[in-house]
Amino acid sequence: MPGRKANSSTVICDSSADIAEMAAISPSHAAARAFSSNAWLGMSETHMGVSSVVKTALLSGLIGWGRARRMLLLGETIGAREALEWGLLEKVVEREELDDAVAG
């Protein structure tokens, strides 16, 4: 996705991301997950009528079944601040500060 970089220890995003992919990159796998304040997360698979059983199970483990159902059944998206509150992200900063936030 545009504006998204990932490696084995860091995920940074300044536009959008698939929340199921974020679930697959759990806290034990990513040392830092930082998004800009204007980024959003959603289940892109939901809008296509397809979903991953594995990613769905991981997502519900991270954010709970109630929140996961909203994402899976209704196709809701959430902003970076809400994702931070839910524990999916570790940092939310302004776009200009994103690289610095991850670097140090």
UniProtKB/TrEMBL annotation:
Domain of life of the source: Eukaryota
Signal peptide: none
Pfam families per record: ECH_1
Name of protein: Short-chain enoyl-CoA hydratase
